[in-house]
């Protein structure tokens, strides 16, 4: 019998508030959920529902007001800013709606950036960056700048940059938001392939039902709470 997969993300009665007194608002109100290693989870909800706040917590970009956030067993709320930055650098990969590529540098150089921060030797980081681009099917355009690539290709470069460090978790924030329907499907097919073949845990915020269906599980937020049921995707 196969052992159950390890829990990598866990919220325990997590609360995030902004403001004080009568101006106090709850972005998250006693939210509890867990995500296991190797899952592909979509987070959905209306604007102000708490999905973006949850993503910021998972990405160690913000700290809870109360409750616990465990990342791979570590109590994140007890860490200082430098320690949270180390988690982001060493264990997380980020993909954004806007690609966030450097315009005057090649695809290869863009993918190298996280490795430069890690002080990986030049020869090794170029090899790692090329392998990451190969994983996303862009080995033929490594020397192209973003202006010479389509929107879909630019997002693939961004995904390669996010996975080049072999992160434990890939966080994707509206990864198809700036893409047409065909490029959106190509991007989601790629993310699902990375999840299935590389076993990378993916957590994606999206407002698009068709994109959420690529996930193995969908978590719906409403007014700072998780809705009663966790619905399955159609992976």
Automatic annotation (TrEMBL):
SUPFAM superfamilies the record matches: P-loop containing nucleoside triphosphate hydrolases
Matching CDD domains: ABC_MJ0796_LolCDE_FtsE
Sorted UniProt keywords: ATP-binding, Nucleotide-binding, Transport
GO molecular function: ATP binding; ATP hydrolysis activity; transmembrane transporter activity
GO CC, alphabetical: membrane protein complex
Matching Pfam families: ABC_tran
Domain ABC transporter residues, every copy: 9-235
Family: Belongs to the ABC transporter superfamily. Macrolide exporter (TC 3.A.1.122) family.
Protein name: Macrolide ABC transporter ATP-binding protein
């Amino acid at each position: 019998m196969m052992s159950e997969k390890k829990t990598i993300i866990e919220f325990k009665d997590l609360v995030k508030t902004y403001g004080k007194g009568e101006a106090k608002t709850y972005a998250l109100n006693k939210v509890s959920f867990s995500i296991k290693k190797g899952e592909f989870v979509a987070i959905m909800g209306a604007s102000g529902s708490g999905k973006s706040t949850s993503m910021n917590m998972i990405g160690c970009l913000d700290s809870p007001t109360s409750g616990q956030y465990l990342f791979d067993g570590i109590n994140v709320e007890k860490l200082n800013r430098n320690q949270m930055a180390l988690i982001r650098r060493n264990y997380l990969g980020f993909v954004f709606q806007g690609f966030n590529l450097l315009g005057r540098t090649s695809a290869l150089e863009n993918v190298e950036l996280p490795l430069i921060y890690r002080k990986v030797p030049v020869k090794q980081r170029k090899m790692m960056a090329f392998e990451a681009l190969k994983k996303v099917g862009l080995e033929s355009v490594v020397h192209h700048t973003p202006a010479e690539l389509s929107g879909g290709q630019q997002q693939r470069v961004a995904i390669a940059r996010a996975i080049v460090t072999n992160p434990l978790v890939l966080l994707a924030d509206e990864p198809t938001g700036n893409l047409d329907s065909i490029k959106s499907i190509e991007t989601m097919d790629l993310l699902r392939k990375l999840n299935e073949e590389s076993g990378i845990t993916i957590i994606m915020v999206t407002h698009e039902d068709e994109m959420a269906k690529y996930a193995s599980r969908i978590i719906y937020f409403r007014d700072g709470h998780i809705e009663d049921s966790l619905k399955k995707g159609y992976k």
